[in-house]
């Protein structure tokens, strides 16, 4: 039954990618909304994550663990397929709204992935791509390497999903906004990602950037060019900092203010030319530097846990 479910998710994922490439994903999004499948996918995503953290490491430590099937690899691919599918469809407001209460679980999931990404880059760790085909019989060490590589790629997908969620700030439940701004402090986490940029690294004196599932050497003339991942981080920051609703709820205390003001060093003319909306961000940070914002409005938030 699980393998059938996995196969269905794979097919849906491929269908979503092909439909998106020709701009015809409306039918798929309508079906996902009308059959209430987004909460199911989010639940599946979290189950696989728990399996990966609680059971997979124990399996790999067993002395007699000699996989006779590729089932563990399929489970690892399952998480990647679901997050890829969600990244493709979460662009639509209806999808975001149809997640209902499970949107909180998805925000928590994405936050865990981004925290891991920020921690690895702050420690100077870079992930190299390790190819392992699902038809190869794996060894525990090769599977762990594969899991690490996929964790990096999944985290980058979570970055995009979270940005699409921030696009829908106006239609999100009140508790989702509180979760993003106050519980997880996503603006400061985004600053950390801008600062350390996990999808770029230097190797043998050459700058490499991660795009479309692989590391590429960047030519000197393209080094100041913004990648899609950079764009996702900046767009999410614009949504979280400049939306009136977010400004009312976010607590601009001393720490948060000092973290956000670090962004001024990255807002160069070259960057603003590529994403003109960042002029508003520059203006907001200049205003923030010289003023003390009002304390956040305290609301009573009741949520089901």
Automatic annotation (TrEMBL):
<dbReference type="GO" id="GO:0044458">
    <property type="term" value="P:motile cilium assembly"/>
</dbReference>
<dbReference type="GO" id="GO:0005737">
    <property type="term" value="C:cytoplasm"/>
</dbReference>
<dbReference type="GO" id="GO:0036158">
    <property type="term" value="P:outer dynein arm assembly"/>
</dbReference>
<dbReference type="GO" id="GO:0034451">
    <property type="term" value="C:centriolar satellite"/>
</dbReference>
<dbReference type="GO" id="GO:0036159">
    <property type="term" value="P:inner dynein arm assembly"/>
</dbReference>
<protein>
    <submittedName>
        <fullName>Zinc finger MYND domain-containing protein 10</fullName>
    </submittedName>
</protein>
<dbReference type="InterPro" id="IPR052298">
    <property type="entry name" value="ZMYND10"/>
</dbReference>
